[in-house]
Amino acid sequence: MTTHPQSARRTRIAVVAGVIVVVLVIAAALGWWLTRDDGPAATKQVLPSTPTGVRTIQDPVRLVRDTSGIPGVLAWDQGQYMTLATQDGKAVHLSHVRGPVTYTMTPPAGGPHNIVWMNAGVYTKPVPSERAVHNMEHGAIWITYDPKLPKSTVAKLVAFVGRQSLIPEPKGQGGVKVSGQANRFMDLSPWASNSLPSPIVLSSWGHQLRVTSATDPRMQRFVDTFRHRKPYSPETNEPVDGIPTGTGGVAARYGGVQPNPSGTKN
């Protein structure tokens, strides 16, 4: 039986087209698998450990007039960075504690926090407030969002974090032992419930901005004003990296440029 040349050509074209479609489907499926929250890309993430022990209750803190010039920013009395021993019950104090903390603010914008901070970056699951607050003491911005936000909105927040500049962290300072380390001094994580005062909240030490859109232009103004800058953070020159990953975690994205040490730190 003789096959007509045009028929054979059409058959080959159909086979090639079928192969291309199969390859595209496989590529799309692989991309979806690698980026889903419980896929291989997310398995590299290690959440910071949750503090245990005696609980500290934060006292109510006093709202004061914000002087940043950014519309909508809330400011709390920082009381000259008061400690538990000197605070008057109305200022945001910065004492180190080892156990969990019940915060007056949701989400917290300062207050008592764990003695060990966390390795900053983008996390796809909630992180311990006690460690994130310590990062803010060092000048980090913590963005929290409602866990029911659309994935497209979360992707915009992730991209926003990725656009921020890297800040070098000197080796040996504040316990960091990683040579050549740098970080964006940005934390991004979902809140554990839908109890946030707005869908997206940006917090720095003693200051907070509540927005409804991931493209709100005030977000960048907030970061430019409060991130890693005196006088807005009590310990601007300290790192937000260098903690053993069993305690400080491994961010899903946009963590330190160098790997942090393994193990745990109490």
Give an overview in words:
- The chain has 266 residues and is an alpha/beta fold.
- The chain contains 6 helices and 12 strands.
- It has helices at 5-35, 40-43, 129-137, 151-162, 218-226, 245-248, and strands at 56-57, 63-64, 74-76, 96-97, 101-102, 113-114, 141-145, 167-168, 182-183, 186-190, 200-204, 207-211.
- Strands 2-3-12-11-7-10 form a 6-stranded mixed β-sheet, with helices on both faces. A two-stranded parallel sheet has the order 1-5. Strands 4-6 form a two-stranded parallel ribbon.
- Strand 11 (200-204) and strand 12 (207-211) form a beta hairpin.
- The longest helix is centred in the N-terminal third of the chain and has 31 residues, at 5-35.
- The model is unreliable at 22-43 and 82-88 (pLDDT under 50).
- The best one-word shape is globular
**Helicity level, as a percent range?**
25-40%
Strand content: 5-15%
Low-confidence stretches: 22-43, 82-88
Q: Main traits of this protein?
A:
globular; 266 residues; 6 helices; alpha/beta; six-stranded mixed sheet; 26% helix
Brief synopsis:
By secondary structure, the chain is of the alpha/beta class. The chain contains 6 helices and 12 strands.
